[in-house]
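Task: complex structure prediction.
Instruction: return structure tokens for all chains below.
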Amino acid sequence: MQENDTIKKKLDKELVSLTLKNQDFFVYIMERYQEKLFYYIRKISNLDKEDIEDLLQEIFIKAYQNLNAFDPNMKFSSWIYRIAHNQTIDHFRKTKSRPQIAFLEQDIKEEILNNVKSDFDIKKEIEKKETKREVLDILNNLDDKYKEVLMLKFIEEKDYKEISDILKKPIGTVSTLINRAKKQFKKEFNINKI
Amino acid sequence: MKNITRRVLEKIKKDEIKPKPRWSFVMKNYSLWVLFGISIIVGSIAASLILFILRNNEWDLHPVLGTGLSKFILLTFPYFWLIILAVFIYLTYIEIKRTKTGYKYNPLLIVLISFLVSITLGSGVYATGLGERMEKVLNRSPLYQRMFFQKQRMWEMPGSGLIGGTITKIDSEYDFEIEDLKGNIFHIIADEESPTGNLILQEGMEVKIIGEKIDEETFKAYEVRPFFGPRKEIIREEHKNFIKGERKFSPPRISK
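Output:
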């Protein structure tokens, strides 16, 4: 039991090295990420539980097969989120449909709402009357290309470098997307206010 | 959720799934860099050919052809090599993007750097004369000739004072025969009083001649240029006289 706890405290990188020697250690990686990835996939796909679980299984197998490609200079979480992102896109490509990126009410906690308000420079304006529901509606009305970046920033709480590594886009592009998303958000917000 | 972990581990064990070896990823990354290098080299060769073709384009002839400079550029621009250059610059972009860290770079910056590197290396290749040699070799291919049909056609207009072909017989430096690009035999005569130029004629040599058609078999030459490659400066000067209307001809010398 104590040994189990010691392993659970290990860094992702250490678990990767251990898994490469013994596949049983992969369980610890999966346990660490299955829930996070499950909700991430749900948010960027709107698939049902069974489909997400099937996708998650594919993601873990893909990650296991490609463990030697993991670059220890980047965060393991960015690496596995990237696999999840790509597999989800592939899933929709195969089914010739479009992913439904959606912010869900339960994801928008008070702290996240405050981050959105302060980051989007609308804190003062929003304090009095706008509700969480309205912010959520505006977020969900944004263009798809902005939604995933904002989701990674506010819900998954990733920094620009991590978002760049997950989406395989230059940091400058991530920054541009976020700035444009802010502009679109403020525009929608002002229209709604009127 | 526990199920997923169990299912994945069972599948890994049952199907004997193994992590791909590290060397396969290293090799993939290296091969992308090798492909990038090859694309840069091909792009540079294309750039050197563009430079060569533009440098040796008969810019001075557009008044003789009766076309404006812009139409002349449109007719003679090396589009084929420009497309090849663009394709290989695009390939360098794809290859860089697919490397392990390629996504971190701005796509525009990759394209710009690839373009500048291709042009710089291309200028080096051009300076070595490789562009000229390649153009000569390629020009012997019927496919390549068809691609540059418009440019070739320029030298199939004896009525307009332009004729190109291969020297079949040399009687004197003022009197020789060519088989033109359409297969007709023309007797070329030159003005004996003109000073001697520095082009050494040989049977089998491909030449371009500027002058005037006397009849169906005779063509009076004011200037003879090698079909491929740069002209000598002395010939350029004489041609300037021709363009100005002085019509002095430097007869080429015959190889002894």
